[in-house]
Amino acid sequence: MEAIKASTGIEWIRQGFVLFRKQPAELSMLFLLYMLLMFSLSLIPLVGQLLPLLLVPAFSMAFMQACVEIEADRKVRPSVILTSFRSAALGPLLRLGSLYLLAAIAAVAASTLVDDGLFWNLMSGQMKPEDDDAAMGNLPLGMIFSALIYLPFGMAFWHAAPLILWQRMGLFKAIFYSFFAVRRCGKAFIAYALGWILVGIALPAIISALLSLLLGKNVVTLMLLMPLSVVLTIVMYCSFYPTYTAVFERPEQN
User: Can you tell me the distance from the alpha carbon of 97 to that of 62, in angstroms, rounded to the nearest whole number?
Assistant: First the structure.
């Protein structure tokens, strides 16, 4: 595999916008269906908070498959949400989801080393942001520490789901290949992450500030920003696909 330049990370974001622009309505419908399913699962007693994270790999492949359909000039249909559930790879994808869950718990738990359990209490529902404004000063430190702990897990999981579904790799083989693929393309992924920080966080913040100054109504500003937030989230999901195809073979288009 040839070395991938840092600028490729920005190109991945651009390709995400290109894919979205081809079928915006269909992708928006898929996203709303996904959100509805996640919300419904969260209502299940006892396991409702865990199921959405457990099913992330399975549902993420719906958007990856949607990108395949778009490349093949086929209409993205709502049934694509069931891509993983129709596959023999569902078992490994669910086991991958279990590892997602364990890694997330471990990363948040590790934050107790630097913030006296603040981030853990917040994520576990034992504390609310407004409970102690003074203590919240330590929250960013805990969040950053958790993100750093989760980083190698994120590298290992990034390509694992499509490798399992499309290349029929075993769970740990897919994790291995994913980790070293991301590591080898490190500069591109750093540019990709920085690009999304600019596009997905800084840009909406600037627009929000301008709208607040012009309109002076937080409710109106929120209503105007909500569609932008949804679009950017869908584009981000679409951009996952080119990060995969830049390294691995494109899936077969049946």
Answer: 15
**Is 42 within a domain?**
yes
Residue 128 forms part of a structural domain: no
In this structure, is residue 58 part of a structural domain? yes
The values of phi and psi at residue 74, to 5°, are -110, 150
Mean pLDDT lowest among 55-64, 96-105, 123-132, 147-156: 123-132
Q: Kindly list the distances between the CA atom of residue 248 and the CA atoms of 2, 97, 134, 193, 242, in Å, as whole numbers in the listed order.
A: 12, 22, 48, 20, 10
How many structural domains are present in the chain?
A: 1
Q: What percent of the chain has pLDDT over 70?
A: 91
What angle, 0 to 180 degrees and rounded to 10, lies between the N-to-C axes of helices 7-22 and 24-42?
100
Four-point Cα dihedral 18, 164, 76, 182, nearest 10: -10
Q: Would you state the structure tokens that stand for residue 248, as one six-digit string?
A: 């691995």
CB contact burial 51-78 (16+ within 10 A = b; e otherwise): bbbbbbbbbbbbbbbbbbbbeeeeebee
How many whole angstroms separate alpha carbon 182 and alpha carbon 8?
A: 13
* Alpha-carbon distances, residue 95 vs 56, 65, 250 (angstroms): 11, 20, 24
Cα angle at 252 between 2 and 231, to 5 degrees?
A: 80
Domain with 215 in it: 7-94+155-245
Sorting pLDDT into bands at 50, 70 and 90, what band is 134?
very low
Q: Above 70 in pLDDT, residue 253?
A: no
Mind listing the pLDDT tens digit for each residue in 2-22?
568 999 999 999 999 999 999
